[in-house]
Amino acid sequence: MSTTANTADQLSLSRRSFLRVSATAAGGLLVSLYFDLPLVAQEAGQPKPKAYPPDAFVHIKPDGTIVIQVNRLEFGQGVQTSLPMILADEMDADWLHVVAELAPAADVYRDPLFGIQMVGGSGSIAHSFQQYRELGAKARALLVAAAAEQWKVPPSQCRTEASVVYGPGGRSAHYAQLANAAAHMPVPETVPLKNASDFRLIGKKTRRLDSRPKCDGSLKFGLDLDLPGMKVALVAHPPVFGGSPKSVDDKAARSVPGVADIFQIPTSAKGTAVAVVADKFWTAKQARDRLRIDWDLSSVERADSSQLWAKYKQLAGTPGGVAVARGDEKALDGIVAGNLIVAEFEFPYLAHSPMEPLNTTIRFDGDRAEAWAGSQFQTIDQMAIAQVLGLKPEQITFHTEMAGGGFGRRAVPDSHVQREAAAIARHFTGTPVKLVWTREDDVQGGYYRPMHAHRVEIGIGADGMPSAWRHVVVGQSLLMGTPFEAFAVKNGVDETAVEGIVDTHYDIPNLHVSVHHPTVNVPVLWWRSVGHTHTAFVMETLIDELATRARIDPIAYRRKLLKPDARKLRGALDLMEEKSAPWRAQLPKAHAVGVSCHESFDTGVACAAEVSVENKRPRIHRVTVAVDPGVAVNPLTIESQFQAGVCFGVSQLMAKGAITLKDGHVEQSNFDTYTPPYISDAPVAVDVHIVPSTEKPSGCGEPPVPVISPAVVNALSHLTGKRYRTLPLVTV
Amino acid sequence: METYTLTVNGQPKQVTADPGTPLLWVLREDLKMTGTKYGCGIASCGACTVHLAGVATRSCVVPVSLVGDRPILTIEGVGQDSVGRAVQAAWVSEDVVQCGYCQSGQIMSAVALLKSTPKPTDTNIEESMGGNICRCGTYVRIRRAIKTAAQELK
Amino acid sequence: MVRSRTAMLRLFSVVVVASAAWSTALSSAAGQDTPRKSMPAPAVRDAGLAAWQQVYSVLTHPRCINCHTATNYPQQGDDRHRHLFNVVRGPQDKGVPGLNCATCHQGANAESTGVPGAHNWHLAPVSMRWQDINDQILSSAAVCKSLTDRSKNHNLAGPALLKHHEEEPLVLWAFQPGSRQDGAARSPLPLSHEEFVTATRTWVEAGTPCPLNP
Fold it and tell me: What ipTM goes with this model?
């Protein structure tokens, strides 16, 4: 692989970063990073934060332990292992003595491309690959320089392995012994990076660093936080988004022993909620259950799914804001009905439902505050808390807590959970308060993957290939009204609503895509793989339908239709075809195979699923996935992400896999009514194959999700002859 | 408020709590044993699974007043015996966890399965693990780890 | 249709209870050991059949039938939906290890969390199913036939069946089902436990007559 190509690409960062090294009192080495410009989100001229935390990425301790800071949230995706692997590889650190820590909110830990500290867009490895390599290489260079000076030999005569520098004449020194001296070496401007053939960790299947404490109950998630004197808060939210109490009778609630206070706070959609603060969770819940609140819902819009469908379908029949206009707009006009497909799709609201319910703990100390949250948006949440408390962001110490899943739910532009927590903490100066959203609060609390309607008209050419494609998408915009609007909303079109269509790798000569973004009183949010959750379903089920009509094998059809330069998808498709061939050739009776391929977050994925129908439900016996993610930093993580990510994608097919609203009220409340896949709903076996690559790494967290639901329903269509265009899949 | 003496992982523990308080919250908040997780509060996800006198039990729906003198085994103590140790080791060697939040409950269910069914079939695994949700979707590796643990225990 | 059927049963129950009360009163007045002995055989049988019909109205209430299923799983609620989170019957009708009935159902109702409970919570054996595989309630004749078939019912003769209805914790629970988590009381059965036992006694003393096949 060419390391120089990577360097050039990644150095297009907007701001330059510098290393700073320092010795610790105990004789260790801190390798820190700082930037020449402050955070984009902060005004220039503001004092640079950072007395706290130590902005180190690497800390070599005197006992040889190497602590590596992870500038991301770990919530299952495995970066807490993969990012340290990258750094440790270039540093030649002894992996057995590497300890990973989740970095707190700080400027230096921002995403090098996005400019804020975050996890999103499947960018953790893609964006920090080069950064962590350089950090590791520079740390190594400092240690080598220290050894070379000690031994009076040129650094070029030293080599490193497993935290030891070896010099001529059998000399050797452990990094820990060199740490103090290394701290006084000048930091090199540039360092050579390893050739891929010299990687010791990158590309090797490496087990997670956080397994053991997650298997013996010792790992603390945000919800597990326990601080002296801590109180627990629950919030009674309005039953319709934006509602407010007309009156609150809290007499019975206050009589529950252990209740500290009950008061109103602002909540999302400009509503007002009632916070209950108590000594413990169960006390707070008992009290909340006893609140008698008369809600004023008179001035809020009451969203209703069935009415929204009617409206969306009508909108889908009219052209919207133009997302792409390629070729002849009238190409469909001359096509006879027999060569025309007109298809309408419906996708419901979806809740993320991470296993660890949402929570945030804040202690407000008057002139500063400390916060603990499993956050995908540390610096944004930090700023929101500061705003509510009347402080500056740098007055908030923000700890990144390990999170039990997220899937986008902990990356909220308006930081509504943290704002609630801060509004509550204000009432309890000096006392930490943990805000907990119960499962019901989460399922009913909004911030859903938006409802979408699609209407697609396809003209089929004489060769069976689509000659004209007119596509209208209807759905709330994720980004309008958020700080991200400037990046991805153009001409009134939110790119996240049409990703996967406008950038399709299929060669469709006449492609016209337009969008309607209705405004609805339901807060919406990105859900793992964002627009691809629905666009891949539409594209890949229609492509399959076209292949069936053309009587061409669905894999061959896709290969024929893919543009010549769709390298990643072609590679994935070829590998999937090869690896699934043995079982596809021996399908049991009443089993069918469905395929799909889709590129998202620069990662090409192809998928084949073996499906039968059991109890009127799809039974997914086996899935073969092939993926081209560029350099596979940790193939074990990639395998796991894809094995489990396709299961997450099955959520869309669950019979109770929809959030619906009636007269403004969310009709589901917990896993009994909004049900994620259980083990029997998930694919029984998933084999994952990685296309060998020397290209820079691309995302692996989200790309598993889009491919599975179209593959499964394509198989169902082969079994039943029916087309499935409405999700969730209530019945087969 | 009532005072209860519970036996948790072999240790007697005294707690004073409202009788209706689910065992889950007594463990998490009174005894500060947070390995047992709150996921849904309605027994639908299994994150709160502990063993009560050997029976896998959803601690989020069992009031402390109904525990009686049955010994409680939690994720913090499940490694005290060979089955628990084997399951935890298999979970690590098969790299099962992702976010890890549900895995305490998954492990407690798997241990209950293997204690009564040393050689589980695919159907046994699917039925016994059938009520535990892993939102990350690690089920493929859970299946594999249970078989690995069963193999180890032979 | 379901509603009218229930209404009919209720009406029928009232009539039968009234007649049972009448026969009890009559028999006490006559000072007989076994009241039915004073009645002509066909009348005893008729009273027994009427009492059976009352018993049947309870047995086929969702509360009872939810665990007297023909399926591999229990059901829940008055709408008799499949039990949540994939609970299965298991080899001993008590679920499977890791997901037993006792995984949630304790020895008594858990009022604070809404989970019903009673000693030894379990499903009835498949031989004691009161519904078919498609969730259709079996006819009165079919349920009666199964219930009185000692090769299917754990060899329980009439008096033992009466005892079961008088004392079995799960039967007693069905009349004291507690509240759901939201605090709402579970729906009442068509009869009180006392009425149910009385009807069972009448039926047993009449020799557990069963309706002829419909």
Answer: 0.98
Q: Which residues of B touch A75 (CB under 8 A)?
A: 99
Residues from chain A contacting residue C85 (CB–CB below 8 Å) = 671, 678
Contacts of A189 (CB under 8 A, 6+ apart): none
Q: Is the peptide bond before A728 cis (omega within 30 degrees of 0)?
A: yes
Chain A hits for B34, CB-CB cut-off 8 Å, are: 217, 220-221, 223-224, 226
Does residue A280 sit at the B interface (CB-CB below 8 Å)? yes
Q: What is the C-alpha separation between A151 and A157, in angstroms, rounded?
A: 11
In whole angstroms, what is the distance from residue A531 CA to residue A526 CA?
A: 8
Q: pLDDT at position A55, please?
A: 54
Residues in chain A, pLDDT under 70: 1-18, 33-55
Residues of A in contact with B32 (CB under 8 A): 226
Inter-chain CB proximity B109 and C115 less than 8 Å: no
Interface of A with C in 668-697 (CB under 8 A): 671-672, 678, 680
The Cα A552–Cα A295 span in angstroms is 59
Using an 8 Å Cβ cutoff, are B145 and B91 in contact?
A: yes
The answer to whether the CB of C50 falls within 8 A of the CB of C16 is: yes
Q: Centre a 10 Å sphere on the Cβ of residue B9 and count the other Cβ atoms it contains.
A: 17
* Phi, psi (deg, nearest 5) at residue C138: -70, 155
Amino acid letter at A461? G
Which residue among B20, B112, B129 places its CB closest to the CB of C111? B20
Per residue in C5-41, pLDDT (tens digit) is 444 444 444 334 434 433 433 333 333 344 455 677 8
Cβ atoms of A23 and A184 within 8 Å: the answer is: yes
Q: Read off the tokens for C173.
A: 């629970």
Q: Are B138 and A640 in contact (CB < 8 Å)?
A: yes
At C212 the three-state DSSP class reads coil
Determine the Cα–Cα distance for residues B7 and A26; give it in Å rounded to an integer.
43
| Rounded average pLDDT over B111-134 | 98
Q: How far apart are CA B51 and CA B114, in angstroms?
A: 13
- CA-CA distance, C146 to C149, in Å (whole number)? 5
What are φ and ψ of residue A163, in 5° steps?
65, 25
**How many whole angstroms separate alpha carbon A597 and alpha carbon A579?**
15
| Measured distance CA(A148)–CA(A129) in Å, rounded | 28
Question: Which among C88, C97, C111 has the least Cβ separation from residue B56?
Answer: C97
Question: If we measure between CA atoms, which residue out of A438, A526, A416, A428 comes closest to residue A475?
Answer: A526
d(CA A334, CA A330): 8
Q: Report residue A634 CA to chain centroid gap.
A: 18
Q: Is B113 on the interface with C (CB under 8 A)?
A: yes
Q: Which two three-digit tokens encode residue A161?
A: 């392995």
CA-based nearest residue in chain B for residue C118: B66
Task: Looking at the complex, report in whole angstroms how far the Cα of residue C212 sits from the nearest Cα belonging to chain A.
Answer: 35
